[in-house]
């Protein structure tokens, strides 16, 4: 099945590509070309954020591509500094303007920090006005997610969280399913940490299918019904990362990958007070 035809259906009926393209840490000056290459390779879902500083460049690539708007699925995220009801609305308008769009497919609260309840109220209104086709959250641990769901009208359509072979989130997935929240992986390759790309288990499994480690990892996530948004600045890797719909990992390979879980982030703990302070103090334009 070509990547363009593989979707998940969110809790409000919106269809989201199960495989998209992320632009975190793509320098602003490189982003227009990188997104142009990604769209040419066949990606139709792009994941950015206000805090990535490259929304305008993403917007230029989208405009230049000539791809009909309805064929694209564009996600961006609101930074902590901009939480609050009025601020969230203003920042949404700013992101939309930078992206050159008149609606977003998915708008996410980037972190469960700051006055995000007020942001959520603003986002519920944006959703009601049709300006965001779906709204969701990112980096929400189970307690924060359940609390947000319990005290608001709209259940997030998506929770974008760290998920890769070393931090698999299998224990979290049933709760997300129970509430109808789609899990989306960030950092599917753990950004290469723990020597993921030369991991012996993943390498051996890949050899059995004639696939790379990257392809095995993406396929493994997709078979777990997890949306993936790998990032690469290289066209050959963009193509490779899309080419994961012509094989299926067998049960024993899924089990072997499950054994790689460390149960902990490969990056940092969102509940560490020092990290909360650092994130909360980070300023973006
Ligand atoms: N919500 C959040 O807090 C959050 C946090 C982090 C990320 N994200 C989102 O998730 C997306 C993906 O995560 P990520 O960018 O952090 O990391 P990632 O996708 O796990 O890893 C990207 C790294 O893998 C390399 N790579 C990509 N394809 C490869 C392949 N086929 N073979 C070998 N190396 C390959 C890339 O290098 P090259 O570019 O040189 O190819 C880059 O160094 C982000 O872009 C962003 O949209 C969200």
TrEMBL record:
Entry annotated with the keyword Nucleotide-binding: no
Pfam families: Aldo_ket_red
SUPFAM superfamilies (UniProt xref): NAD(P)-linked oxidoreductase
Gene3D superfamilies documented for this protein: NADP-dependent oxidoreductase domain
Site residues by UniProt (Lowers pKa of active site Tyr): 77
Boundaries of every NADP-dependent oxidoreductase domain copy: 25-261
Keyword Oxidoreductase appears in the UniProt entry: yes
Binding, substrate: 110
Keywords on record: NADP, Oxidoreductase
Active-site residue list: 52 (proton donor)
GO molecular function: oxidoreductase activity, acting on the CH-OH group of donors, NAD or NADP as acceptor
InterPro entries linked to this entry: AKR, Aldo/ket_reductase_CS, NAD(P)_OxRdtase_dom_sf, NADP_OxRdtase_dom
Entry similarity comment: Belongs to the aldo/keto reductase family.
Protein name (Swiss-Prot/TrEMBL): 2,5-diketo-D-gluconate reductase A
Species name: Actinoplanes lutulentus
């Amino acid at each position: 099945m070509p990547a363009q035809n593989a979707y998940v259906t969110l809790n409000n009926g919106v269809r989201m590509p199960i495989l998209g393209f992320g632009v975190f840490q793509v320098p602003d000056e490189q982003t227009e070309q990188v997104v142009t290459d990604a769209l040419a390779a066949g990606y139709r879902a792009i994941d950015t954020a206000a805090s990535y500083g490259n929304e305008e460049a993403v917007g230029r690539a989208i405009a230049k591509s000539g791809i009909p708007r309805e064929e694209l699925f564009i996600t961006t995220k609101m930074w902590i500094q901009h939480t609050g009801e009025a601020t969230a609305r203003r920042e949404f308008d700013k992101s939309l303007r930078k992206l050159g769009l008149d609606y977003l497919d998915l708008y996410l609260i980037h972190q469960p920090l700051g006055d995000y309840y007020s942001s959520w109220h603003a986002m519920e209104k944006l959703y009601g006005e049709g300006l965001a086709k779906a709204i969701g959250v990112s980096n929400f641990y189970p307690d924060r997610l359940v609390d947000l769901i319990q005290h608001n009208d709209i259940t997030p359509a998506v929770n974008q969280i760290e998920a890769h072979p070393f931090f698999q989130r299998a224990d979290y997935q049933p709760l997300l399913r129970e509430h109808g929240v789609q899990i989306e992986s960030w950092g599917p390759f753990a950004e290469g940490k723990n020597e993921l790309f030369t991991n012996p288990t993943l390498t051996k499994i890949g050899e059995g299918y004639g696939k790379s480690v990257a392809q095995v990892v993406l396929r493994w996530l997709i078979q777990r019904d997890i949306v993936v948004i790998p990032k690469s600045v290289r066209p050959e890797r963009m193509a490779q990362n899309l080419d994961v719909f012509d094989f299926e990992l067998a049960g024993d390979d899924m089990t072997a990958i499950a054994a790689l879980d460390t149960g902990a982030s490969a990056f940092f703990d969102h509940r560490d007070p020092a990290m909360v302070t650092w994130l909360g103090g980070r300023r973006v334009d």
